Amino acid sequence: MGRDVIIALDFPGMAETEAFLSQFTGRKPFVKIGMELYYAEGPAAVKRLKEMGHKIFLDLKLHDIPTTVKKAMKVLSNLDVDMCNLHAAGTRAMMEAALEGLTRPDGTRPILLAVTQLTSTDEERMQKELLIPHTVAEVVESYAANAAAAGLDGVVCSPLEAKLVKERCGKDFWTVTPGIRFADGDVGDQKRITTPELAREFSDYIVVGRPITAAEDPVAAYERCVREFCD
Ligand code: C5P
């Protein structure tokens, strides 16, 4: 797998998802199934999108006690997704347990990423509500280092923090970055954002939702992302 654009399929069900994807004739974009679609349709959504030929990032952001996460990851591993994730805030013990659960008897497993701080959380909220008395950059760097130490493949972080992660954890430690907006587009509820073009330098994958799904011409918006990020 290499540099790519992942479309966040934040739709209420498979009918809407398939209608959306039917516009991409002859193309099979890498897609992300998030909580909304998964909770609505379950494993059937994963199976259907696999059958349709898409690579899948299953974005369920697990965060629970290590044993529970390990067992849940074992179930997800059988779904044969390409990538999945958890919250680094669950601690290194949870991340190690997750990797164990995810690894199949033949030693293969999906890519496992850790969410550092959500790109919708700004520093003030993090400090005042979560009582974390550090900068977002410090927290992201430290969580990424924990994820690397636990043996994970990379992190989900803001494109603005991807450079820091690469510096701390090495260039082969993946950075997958949501919070992408076109220079002339709507920001929505995302706070720590950048453009596909600026994400190029330190992101391995970008995750793009509304700038593509809510665009008047989603295929053109996807192609613009690919042009600005991959080419
Ligand atoms: O519509 P938008 O481009 O903001 O969608 C971003 C997607 O990435 C959403 O599906 C959101 O759940 C996900 N995401 C995020 N921040 C993270 C991890 C995932 O925005 N840290």
Could you walk me through the main structural features you see in this protein, from its secondary elements to its overall organization?
- This protein is an alpha/beta fold and 231 residues long.
- Helix content is 42%, strand content 16%.
- It has helices spanning 14-21, 35-41, 43-51, 66-78, 92-102, 123-128, 136-150, 162-169, 196-199, 210-213, 218-229, and strands at 4-8, 30-33, 56-62, 83-87, 111-115, 154-156, 174-177, 205-208.
- The longest helix is centred in the middle third of the chain and has 15 residues, at 136-150.
- The two termini are 16 Å apart.
- The model has no long low-confidence stretch (mean pLDDT 95).
- It binds cytidine-5'-monophosphate.
- Cytidine-5'-monophosphate binds next to strand 8 and helix 10.
- Cytidine-5'-monophosphate is lined by residues 8, 10, 34, 59, 115, 118-119, 156, 178-179, 188, 190, 207-211.
Spatial sequence of strands, sheet with the most strands:
1-2-3-4-5-6-7-8
Average residue-wise pLDDT: 95
Helix content: 40-55%
Name the hetero compounds present: cytidine-5'-monophosphate
Task: Name the structural class.
Answer: alpha/beta
Our estimate of the beta-strand percent is 15-25%
Principal-axis shape: globular
Helix-strand topology string: EHEHHEHEHEHHEHEHEHH
The tally of helices reads 11
Low-confidence stretches: none
Q: Count all strands and give the number.
A: 8
The major pleated sheet works out as: 8 strands, parallel, barrel
Radius of gyration: 17 Å
